[in-house]
Design goal:
The protein is mainly α and 174 residues long. It has a domain of 99 residues: Helix Hairpins (Orthogonal Bundle). The protein contains 4 helices and 2 strands, in the order E-E-H-H-H-H.
């Protein structure tokens, strides 16, 4: 038995700036009949694709490409990479507990996530408004501020975890 449902359809490729919708009784081209729609959901961004291992591998490749693009194009990503490596090496040398590692990993990942989202927003903003626009500048500033907030929080976490070890090392030297 082929089940269908009635629903409003949207065409995301509409050129007039508004999505295409099915006619309603208020429209001049209303025929009184509703189009039958399949019961399965259609992904408006990728069509009617089913899960496949090859598709997941391709998604992973795109994600890795995005990380590489971020590292190649964002100077601050190199600052984050250097800080991440230093914190991970110091943590390994100090023999941190699993609980302490958890906090450091969360802190590091929060900065990387904020930086990736900031990079994505900047790239999209540059496409949407190639010329200077004050609202685009404000959006970029807010996104950069989010990275800064995340970095400050991560430094605080690192100091709370690594600080006592540093104080202990200084006390043993002095």
């Amino acid at each position: 038995m082929n089940k269908t449902r009635k629903s409003q359809t949207f065409d995301l490729t509409a050129t007039e700036g508004t999505p295409h919708r099915a006619p309603t009784p208020c429209d001049s081209n209303w025929s009184g009949r509703q189009e039958e729609q399949p019961t399965h959901e259609v992904n408006p961004l990728g069509g009617n694709q089913r899960f496949s291992l090859a598709g997941r591998i391709q998604s992973f490749r795109h994600a890795v490409h995005g990380i590489i693009l971020m590292l190649k194009s964002q100077h601050n990503a190199w600052v984050h990479a250097t800080a991440s490596v230093i914190v991970l090496l110091v943590g390994a040398l100090l023999g941190l507990s699993p609980h302490e590692w958890c906090w450091l990993v969360i802190a590091i990942l929060s900065v990387w996530t904020a930086e990736a989202l900031n990079t994505a927003l900047e790239l999209l903003a540059n496409v949407a408004s190639p010329e200077f626009h004050p609202l685009v500048a404000k959006a970029k500033d807010v996104a950069a501020g989010a990275v800064l907030i995340s970095a400050i929080g991560s430094v605080a976490i690192a100091l709370l975890i690594l600080g006592p070890y540093a104080v202990g090392c200084l006390n043993s030297i002095l």
